[in-house]
Write a structure and sequence with these properties.
Layout lengths: L7 E12 L2 E12 L3 E5 L6 H7 L8 E6 L2 E2 L7 H7 E4 L11 H11 L5 H14 L15 H13 L5 E5 L7 H16 L4 E4 L3 H7 L2 E6 L2 E7 H6 L4 H11 L2
Parallel strand pairs: 3-8, 3-9, 6-7, 7-8
Antiparallel strand pairs: 1-2, 1-4, 4-5, 9-10
Helix pairs in contact: 3-4, 3-5, 4-5, 5-6
EC number: 3.6.3.-
Enzyme class: hydrolase
Membrane topology: Peripheral membrane protein
């Protein structure tokens, strides 16, 4: 497991967000260092997915500041399309283009956004499909793949953009149980290679294996922001203790 550097890759300062009168994020403050893996967990409706989507500007915020690799996400001067091209995002539902085969799903953004030529983009795509174990499926369409395979394609597509960090929003929650590990294995490998990762997940085995820190959320608040050993061995709040008991007992 690589050791994170002192350099902050993702910084959130007093981030708050409302949906109408509903305060979905409340003064959330944390930072994630380069090479660090942080797992965000908590009960449904606690604000986890909203928090991770603010990092690349998919969810606008009403107050606070967010920085990624020194760029202020929350500044009106920031080109969010450029920022998002450098921050990989993997969603619960795979978000692949159904009308494109797998290789073209990986080539498209490289050519359109990074302006890579076709051969270079194809070479990169093939290398990453091989890395996630799907180089035999380049000509298939998403509907011809299992959920686990589609999610691995989505990870490979994000990696094609040479991201400075990867965001995962419950990447295994839509998968059949036997497909979860094939996706987690790819994520574990990324973590061991030193990719900066912020992962919303209920997969506590993954958190125990590769997380450096765990953020525990409840009602829009970050209740705990601690090293994983402390979170699992001696959580600070009763709410976190109850959450762990309910997750691990199943």
């Amino acid at each position: 497991m690589s050791t994170p550097t002192e350099e902050a890759m993702i910084v959130l300062n007093n981030v708050s967000k409302w949906y109408g009168d509903f305060n979905v994020l409340r003064d959330c403050t944390t930072s994630i260092h380069k090479g660090e893996v942080v797992v965000v967990c908590g009960p449904s409706g606690s604000g986890k997915s909203t928090l991770i989507k603010t990092v690349n500007g998919l969810e606008p915020i009403q107050s606070g500041q967010i920085f990624v690799n020194g760029t202020e996400v929350t500044s009106k001067r920031t080109n969010l399309a450029t920022l998002r091209s450098r921050v990989g995002m993997v969603f619960q539902h795979f978000e692949l283009f159904p009308h494109l085969n797998i290789i073209h799903n990986l080539i498209l953004a490289q050519e359109k956004v990074l302006k890579r030529n076709h051969e270079e983009a194809r070479e990169k795509a093939l290398a990453l499909l091989s890395r996630v174990g799907l180089d035999q499926h380049t000509e298939k369409y998403p509907s011809q793949l299992s959920g686990g395979q589609q999610q691995r394609v989505a990870i490979a597509r994000a990696l094609c953009m040479d991201p400075v960090a990867m965001l995962f929003d419950e990447p295994t929650s839509a998968l059949d149980p036997e497909m979860i590990n094939e996706v987690l294995d790819v994520m574990v490998e990324l973590a061991y290679e030193g990719m900066t990762m912020m992962v919303v997940t209920h997969e506590m085995g993954f958190a125990r294996k590769v997380a450096h820190r765990v953020l525990f959320m409840e009602e829009g608040l970050i209740l705990e922001d601690t090293p994983k050993e402390q979170f699992f061995d001696s959580p600070q709040t009763q709410r976190a203790k109850d959450f762990l008991a309910s997750i691990i007992s199943h």
